[in-house]
């Protein structure tokens, strides 16, 4: 079981991810709706893993990955993206994200990425 922070500006997508994670026995310790909030809360919560949306207001996901990795070089982050964001996914992986999942979420792929990242 991992302590996970879910970051997405869409509440329904956070709820969907949270549902998948909780059913698999993980604990969602915090939800954030933008990258800045995620970075701030990461300092306090120190989750085992972060699921990070790429496109968000205030601070984009790739920027948030860079900031979290400055705070904790060993941070486990899995990116969440819509189709057609290939360049951003590549940049996120180069910035330290461990894996990515594509929306709409498929439970088995989400859990595979999570288990690989915290493995």
TrEMBL record:
**What are the residue boundaries of the Response regulatory domain, all occurrences included?**
3-118
Post-translational modification 4-aspartylphosphate, affected residues: 53
Q: What's any GO biological process attached to this entry?
A: phosphorelay signal transduction system
- CDD domains, from UniProt? REC_CheY (cd17542)
Keyword entries, A-Z: Phosphoprotein
Stored SUPFAM superfamilies: CheY-like
Name of the protein in question: Response regulator
**Species per Swiss-Prot/TrEMBL record:** Cohnella terricola
């Amino acid at each position: 079981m991992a302590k996970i922070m879910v970051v997405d500006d869409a509440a329904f997508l956070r709820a969907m991810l949270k549902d998948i994670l909780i059913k698999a026995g993980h604990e969602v310790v915090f939800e954030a709706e933008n990258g800045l909030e995620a970075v701030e809360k990461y300092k306090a919560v120190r989750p085992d893993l972060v699921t990070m949306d790429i496109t968000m207001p205030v601070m984009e996901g790739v920027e948030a990955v860079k900031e979290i990795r400055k705070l904790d070089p060993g941070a486990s982050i899995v990116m969440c993206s819509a189709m057609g964001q290939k360049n951003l996914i590549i940049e996120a992986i180069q910035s330290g994200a461990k894996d990515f999942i594509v929306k709409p979420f498929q439970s088995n792929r989400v859990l595979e990425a999570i288990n690989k990242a915290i493995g």
